[in-house]
Amino acid sequence: MTAVTDSYFSALIGRLETLRETLAEPMSRASAAICAAARSDRRVYIFGTGHSHMLAEEVHYRAGGLAFTIPVLIGSAMLHEGAVISTVYERIEGLIRPVLERYGMQPGDVLIIASNSGVNAAPIEAADYGREIGATVIAITSLAYSAAIANGRRRLADLADIVLDNGLPPGDAMVDLPGTELKVGPASTAVGTTVLNAIFADVAAELCKDGNPPVYLSANMPGAKEINQQLVKKYRPRNPHL
Prior knowledge:
Elements: H1 3-22, H2 24-39, E1 44-48, H3 53-58, E2 69-72, H4 83-89, H5 96-102, E3 110-114, H6 121-133, E4 136-141, H7 143-149, H8 156-159, E5 162-165, E6 175-176, E7 183-184, H9 188-207, H10 224-235
Parallel strand pairs: 1-2, 1-3, 3-4, 4-5
Antiparallel strand pairs: 6-7
């Protein structure tokens, strides 16, 4: 392993070790909110733009994942339809609300919003919408990043009911390039997916008290086809991406 790869591994592992302590309380609150939603037959929506949208895809129809999760996927604000223009779209006010309205979010649902910088129009508008319809809003964001760039703008962290601060530095990247002022090794995706999967694993364990939780199996595992088909049949009516 080179010095650079070792630095990235060390930085990422160190960040996760720290988060295991600092996020213990808000992760417990997030787990409780999601459990309450699940027990009331509500849904958990996950939204992010740019690279943050990968957190929504991470928990969607995932082996070992819970079937009541719904990704909010907006092509223009992701990357595959144009990475450069997606940065423009996520800063345009009024773009997100009409899309969210199509998902049929209800009071008692949970809306998880991932935004590392936490100040662009898209996550702010999503948080406003979630609060208006009576959903529990959970933010995955960097408080240090948003504090550094807010300049008087509203921050996602100030609008969420539960804040999961990933503790990452402004700009996301964690490794210095020798002889330059550049940094590489972004970590928000790795950290965000780890935090999400940990929360949903905790939720699944709690729901075991009620019987078998709605967990997808990997398609290659015995019995997966039948179990997954049953889950899709139940949850498809409110999930347009199944």
